[in-house]
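sanity check this record:

:::
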Amino acid sequence: IQLSTPRSGKSPSPSATSPASLRRRQGSLHSGSSLSLASTKICSSMDEWDGPSNEGRTFSNTEHLEEGSSFPGSIADRYKIGRVLGDGNFAVVRECVERSTGREYALKVINKEKCKGKEHMIQSEVSILRRVKHPNIVLLIEEMDTRSELYLVMELVKGGDLFDAITSSNKYTERDASCMLFNLASAIKYLHSLNIVHRDIKPENLLVYEHQDGSKSLKLGDFGLATVVNGPLYAVCGTPTYVAPEIIAETGYGLKVDIWAAGIITYILLCGFPPFRSSGEDQEALFEQILKGELDFPAPFWDNISASAKALISGMLQVVVEQRYTAVHVIDHPWVNGDGLSEREHQLPVAGKIKQHFNYGPKISNTTAGVSVITATPLDKKEQVFRRRCHQDVKHAPNFPHSTNPIVSPAGLTPKSEDGSPSSAHTVRSPTSPL
């Protein structure tokens, strides 16, 4: 695996070769590698984005429907709509090709009738998608709101997810893991600069985008739990393996819960299993481990991992929020910014452990992961509820039945189950969530 700089600026996604972008590479290409992810350092300014000029274009809901067509004229005129790629509880995702350029996108059609009374939850996600423009984030291209449906033209990421990239590669080293973290930290830094917290960062939501020149980069998707931080948040939501201790403790949290999740992912990238896990599906035991935050790097799995990587992970997984790294700290860390590259050429036997600990198997196609991320809506996540901890300083929530059903994915897909926690596709939400 290697992250390389795309050479073409004609990608349908934001290009890493924008003249205003900072272009630093993290080493040369590895021979025998089957993956090449873009490691270009991207500035976080929204003005540097050089994607389609109509991104975020909103159509009036008074526009007519084409005769004989089930799609609004403005959408059908600009795009050729194809087969269904994914069918969820509240949304259908179809193939979508821009007629003028031939670029492939995904058309997400949300049924408003099914969302009646909860439209604000959908609009909350869309309002955030309108604001974010970054090469390491799955983009909203344009939208149209009609009386019965909301149409979202989304970037279609067809290279699989983070675990797909690792398990399908011929060569995987610390250098590759550090470049993956750089892509993720770049997205987080950008979001946090806008006071946006994602709250559901996990491998399934990190997609591999394949640039026209053959290079690749990671893109963060699924903003169903994302929100603007204007003060302490208390909604107990996220995915168990990646959830931060302050969320479980219900003492109030903010942007740094994303850094914790990124730290968990970095740990997994280097050894193939999470730092905090429990036997069976004992979620409370998992939460107790997370609250204690007793980090360990067990032998022999960590014997060949650099001290710099361990120091970085320790900084990202600090239980005391004030002591935890920020996204800027992560990007500036020597393990991420390119120092000491020669120490990180050792082959990491991670793929097998990921398959074992996450019960991870091959998907129907590489497009599956990207479609799953687009198909999900905030309403799907609302059906997933954390088993709440009872604290005296927290108003007790009413009793809700615990949902064990996964977020609906395209037909034929089975969510991955994690070692020591419910399936990481089981994103859960507090019954008292403001969303």
